[in-house]
Amino acid sequence: MLFYFFVAISFVSFVLFVLVDSAPVEIERRPKINYTQLWSKPVLTYSIIQQSKNLSLNDTSNTFRYAFSQLSTVILKQFIKQTTNISSTPADINIYFAPIDSSNGIGHIISRSSNDSIYFDDNENWRKYNPGEKLDPKQMDITWEAMNQIRNLFYVNEVTNADKILLDSSYSDSNKNYVLPKFYS
Asked: Structural domain of residue 154, as residue ranges?
């Protein structure tokens, strides 16, 4: 039941983001996509279109590499990072860090998924934690949130077996030391 609540919040977040904030130009120029065909492919590409101001390019790349490699252990798909190039074919999954206006009265929205894109609020203080590090409640774990939004993206798009993708709800041990989150089914 809690999962459906998060899916509903993600959908509402997307609608509000579209109404309140303008989307990057790259989204506007993309051709109409057959999502059933897209999600049935055995190999999917992803691209980080807009980089976070709080994370290094290396931390962001490593975060998504880890998240997609974890997903590959649960569903039979391979994920390949695609570099952004205006003349190249758009990636199957696009990742954006951009300010999200959360003054909508619904609550603070830190990220959301829709169609073929994942958005993260770049007003958040994102951090890529290393295993064993003490958690700072003022810094959001990008790895767990990335995995959560990838799972939501697959669920919203009704990808085969997406409803069986589960994510650890905790990413710390009893001493509040960071533990890498994992997908399981």
From this structure: 2-184
Q: What is the DSSP-derived secondary structure letter of residue 12?
A: H
CATH number at residue 88: 3.40.390.10
Cα–Cα distance for residue pair 173/185, rounded to 1 Å: 21
Distances (CA, A) of 66 to 84, 113, 114, 145: 19, 18, 21, 12
What's the pLDDT tens digit per position in 87-119? 578 889 999 998 877 655 444 456 666 668 899
Region at 69 (left for phi over 0; alpha for psi -120 to 50; beta for the rest): alpha
117-138: burial string, b at 16+ Cβ within 10 Å, e else? bbbbbbbbebbbbeeeeebeee
Label the pairing between strands 93-98 and 117-121: parallel
* 8 A C-beta contact, residue 120 and residue 59: no
CA distance 63 to 146: 8
Query: In which region does residue 107 sit, left (phi positive, over 0), alpha (psi from -120 to 50) or beta (all else)?
Result: left
pLDDT band at 85 (very low <50, low <70, confident <90, very high): low
pLDDT digits (tens, 9 = 90+) for 9-65: 444 344 334 433 444 434 444 555 666 678 889 999 999 999 999 999 999 999 999
The residue among 17, 14, 18, 24 whose CA lies nearest residue 49 is: 24
Number of structural domains the chain divides into: 1
